[in-house]
Design a protein that fits this description.
The chain has one domain: TIM Barrel. The termini are far apart. The chain is globular and about 55 Å long. The chain is α/β, with parallel strands linked by helices. 35% of the residues lie in helices and 15% in strands. The protein has 16 helices and 15 strands. The structure holds beta-D-glucopyranose. Beta-D-glucopyranose binds next to loops.
Length: 474
């Protein structure tokens, strides 16, 4: 894709550049922050099980306390306000409100989210609910999880419960978070919960996720008046390593998988079998009426962009016949996760998705970076993360000025948290968390957001004296 002259390069951005109606938020996910995994009747999720399996999580970390957001949500929402954000994205823990995944609901779990929503509204923070951010109830996994088509019914029941319980106050909804990660990492490579491996899982899981994505949208539409409904897709701009035909074809296959797989069926275009014929095997799992059921006219698509990907053809990798040319091999700038830092990649992906005529609005529902942080005398000088946000946002602004209908941006994440298989080793927060004391410290990147968003000047003692005692010591 030909890049236009940079409009925003080296230019300091301001909030007003993005317009008064641009939504500025920060995001979290239930399993990553809540802790309290056995409190108040919550049932086990696949991540509770996965974290007990040897060798699955770095340093054998688990999330039973994590950021203790379940108990500390009020002060964490104070931080959201102090940082100047008006939108807060969180996910519902399915097993907190339906401990067995279906059937008996857990009123105490519902009460927690009611209190959280009310606490947002009291602070003039607009809540955004993600229905599914990877923490499937274990009881459903025991019956096949995302591989079992019955998940469409289970998910429908769960979505309806959320819509009817919370829809009076919550108008912004994200149905799924990165379904590709669920299918790829959860059920194919086994790097994420439930840790299932094998390409044979991939196709039915993709299909059931795609069905639930649309079905969830329909259920929210039916049950929540004036809802603004989306779903969040992981995406990476893809480049071939060379201009050789086989590398170009490899890049097209990667693009089909990483970018097109969940948006095109939604838009009525079917799965991207043109670039990746293997996907035609999904037909085996589809019923005649499914093509229509895969469609839903979302109000927005959430794009989650972190890094671009460069690929080349490989005879050694069956099915996909490609391999990544890593950022290390290419000698490019990267985060502590080893992910390439590429603001241009953000621009490319915005352009690519805005070319679909069926997409209404785009929201950047996640963007952020892991860098090694050090909290010294109450200061976390995370200049690299700050630059990362600034550079990526410049490119969001450039795309917006070029006509892309990008309507909001969510920084990932409000605070350091349980980073899945990386445990607590990978910090993505704009607020530092000391996991021994639960003390929060706003990082310099967070302070940069506060200035960008014209929040009140930050008091010097801001949240430094954290009062709650460490649950580990209780
Ligand atoms: C996920 C988050 C995760 C982040 C950083 C996204 O793919 O939605 O849960 O923490 O990436 O890895």
């Amino acid at each position: 894709m030909k890049r236009k002259e940079d409009l925003a390069a080296n230019q300091e951005i301001t909030k007003s550049d993005f317009g008064d109606d641009f939504r500025w938020g920060t995001a979290t996910a239930s399993f990553q922050v809540e802790g309290a995994v056995t409190e108040d009747g919550r049932g086990p999720s696949i991540w509770d099980t996965f974290t007990t399996r040897a060798g699955k999580i770095k340093n054998a970390d688990h999330a039973s306390i994590s950021c203790d957001f379940y108990n500390l949500y009020q002060t964490d929402l104070d931080l959201v306000s102090e940082l100047g954000f008006t939108e807060f994205r969180f996910s519902i823990s399915w097993s907190r409100i339906l401990p067995s995944g279906a059937g008996q609901k857990n009123q105490k779990g519902i009460d927690f989210y009611n209190k959280l929503i009310d606490a947002c509204l009291e602070r003039n923070i607009t809540p955004w609910i993600t229905l599914y951010h990877w923490d499937l109830p274990q009881a459903l996994e025991d019956q096949g999880g995302w591989k079992n088509r019955q998940i469409v019914t289970w998910f429908g029941e769960y979505a309806r419960l959320c819509a009817t319980e919370f829809g009076d106050r919550v108008k912004n909804w994200i149905v799924l978070n990165e379904p590709m990660a669920v299918a790829g990492l959860g059920y194919t490579s086994g790097l994420h919960a439930p840790g299932r491996k094998g390409i044979l899982n991939f196709l039915p899981v993709v299909h059931h996720l795609a069905l639930c994505q649309a079905e969830g949208g329909r259920i929210i539409r039916e049950n929540v008046p004036n809802a603004y409904i989306g779903t969040a897709i992981s995406c990476s701009s893809i480049e071939p390593f060379s201009q050789q035909t086989r590398d170009i074809k490899a890049a097209a296959r990667a693009d089909a998988l990483m970018n097109r797989l969940f948006i095109e069926p939604l838009l009525g275009l079917g799965y991207p079998v043109d670039a990746f014929p293997f996907l035609s095997n999904i037909e085996k799992y589809a019923l005649p009426a499914d093509r229509e059921k895969l469609r839903f006219d979302f109000d927005f698509i959430g794009l989650q962009n972190y890094f671009p990907v460069v690929v080349r053809h490989s005879y050694l990798k069956p099915v996909l016949w490609l391999k990544e040319v890593t950022p290390v091999q290419r000698g490019v700038r990267r985060t502590a996760s080893g992910w390439e830092i590429s603001p241009d990649g953000m621009w490319e992906i915005l352009k690519q998705f805005s070319a679909y005529s069926g997409i209404r609005d785009i929201i950047i529902s996640e963007n952020g970076a892991f860098f090694e942080d050090h909290c010294v005398d109450g200061v976390v000088d995370d200049q690299e993360r700050l630059e990362f946000f600034r550079e990526y946002l410049q490119k969001v602004l450039q795309a917006k000025r070029e006509g892309v209908k990008v309507k909001g941006y969510f920084a990932w994440s409000l605070m350091d948290n349980f980073e899945w298989a990386e445990g607590y080793a990978a910090r993505f927060g704009i607020v530092h968390v000391d996991f021994n004391t639960q003390k929060r410290t706003i990082k310099n990147s967070g302070k940069w957001f506060a200035r960008l968003l014209n929040a009140e000047p930050l008091p010097v003692t801001l949240k430094q004296q954290f009062t709650k005692s460490n649950p580990l010591e209780q």
